[in-house]
Amino acid sequence: MHRTHDPAFWSGRRVLVTGHTGFKGSWLTCWLRDLGAEVYAVSLPPEAGATPLWDRLELDGVQDVRDDVAGTGWLAGAAAFRPEVVLHLAAQSLVSEGYRDPAGTFGTNVMGTVRVLSLVESLPDVRAALVVTTDKVYDVRQPTPFREGDFLGGKDPYSASKAAAELATHSWPDLTGRVVTARAGNVIGGGDFALNRIVPDIVRAWSTDETLVLRRPLAVRPWQHVVEPLLGYLLYAEDVAAGRDVPRALNFGPDAAQAVTVQALVEHAAERWRELRGPAAGGAWEVDPHPEMEETHDLTLDASRAQELLQWGNAWGWQEATSRTLEWYVRAADGEAPRALVLEQVADYVAIAGRAPQ
Ligand SMILES: NC(=O)c1ccc[n+]([C@@H]2O[C@H](COP(=O)([O-])OP(=O)(O)OC[C@H]3O[C@@H](n4cnc5c(N)ncnc54)[C@H](O)[C@@H]3O)[C@@H](O)[C@H]2O)c1
Q1: Full-prediction pTM beyond 0.70?
Q2: CA-proximal residue: ligand 1, atom 3 (nearest)
Q3: Rama region for 297: left / alpha / beta (φ>0; ψ in -120 to 50; rest)
Q4: Interacting residues of 160 by C-beta distance below 8 A, sequence separation 6+
Q5: Angle at CA 213, nearest 5°, toward 212 and 218?
Q6: Out of 41, 119, 138, 237, which could bridge 128 as a Cys pair, Cβ 3.0 to 4.6 Å?
Q7: Which residues have any ligand 1 atom within 6 Å of their CB?
Q8: What is the rounded CA–CA span in Å between residue 345 and residue 349?
Q9: Which domains does the chain have, with CATH numbers?
């Protein structure tokens, strides 16, 4: 059986979350509040005109601080909160933006992590801190699937900045046993509105009956619903907090069979879109003959260590993850409350994961 999180661990727990207004952070913070955690959260103010998922969740009981994690202004308030668990998700998270603004990307992703590490160092009450990085931290000259012991690298600023965040975390003196890194692959799920990510691009195009343009239809990605790595993060943090003997870095990705091409995902999404919206609704796509961005192909993670050690794994395959994601957007567009949709999918996922064979 897969393991699921321990609600008693999270109830009343003081948790510092960075990046709470982002895609993953919104789902995570919604889930943590539902579990009864006390959350102190730090993110940037929203960009003008943006309506991120976070603003639509209407969560209460979150101390919602807006500041730059790479600066020092937020540290005293966070320290006064006396967190017991730290979940560091704040990042410049887009490959495309890394090319546009390398200095800003390194600033946020490296110095932001450094600030979090120095905060944790100063707070002995922090029992577990988890730094979220990515499958892109690996040197792509190695064969896939990547394992945790493989060399780190990064040919673009985003990937290199995340690899540097890994190095900072694992070289920081005196944090061993309290701070770990979680390397996750591409995730999909409702409420992601970032540019140049496939699912938000699908929803933007098809909601307005436009043709979706694919940059690299044959790129293979390890697709995973956002709830899946988030459950992994909760389990990992629980184990670190309990002092269990877990590695200092773990991959969180789907089984190799779930890594399929962008095109396969889009074809499945088009079917689901027509099921939800009617046979005549959108779903058109074409290939961009001149892709601008250099992107890594065939990224896959070997997540067997997380599977064995945390008893965590894939409960929803890529098709279920895609279906659930499109359903989320369609039901939200039809007026259902985003918070209820998030919590419904979290509950469905946890119920399935708890029954799934290991
Ligand atoms: N979404 C994915 O597919 C994916 C895949 C692998 C890894 N990750 C990693 O997971 C984490 C969360 O990703 P996401 O998709 O939710 O990202 P996102 O871009 O949706 O959200 C980023 C969050 O970080 C905050 N942030 C950015 N710069 C900041 C700064 N200087 N100071 C304070 N806050 C700042 C933003 O306000 C936002 O809350 C990131 O570390 C990302 O690199 C994401």
Answers
A1: yes
A2: 186
A3: beta
A4: 106, 153, 154
A5: 115
A6: 237
A7: 19-25, 42-44, 68-70, 89-93, 108, 112, 132, 134, 184, 186-187, 194
A8: 6
A9: 7-352 (3.40.50.720)
Backbone angles phi, psi at 183, to 5 degrees: -105, 110
Are the C-beta atoms of 233 and 4 separated by less than 8 Å?
Answer: no
DSSP string, 260-299: EEHHHHHHHHHHHHHHHH-TTS---EEE-SS--S----S-
Ligand 1 midpoint to CA 330 (Å): 24
Q: What are the tokens at 263?
A: 């095109």
Would you say 168 and 114 are in contact if contact means Cβ atoms under 8 Å apart? Answer: yes
Residue pLDDT, tens place only, 268-302: 999 999 999 887 777 899 988 876 655 555 668 89
- Ligand 1 atom 11: residue of nearest CA: 89
CA of 278 to the centre of ligand 1 (A): 34
Q: Which two tokens stand for residue 88?
A: 């560091």
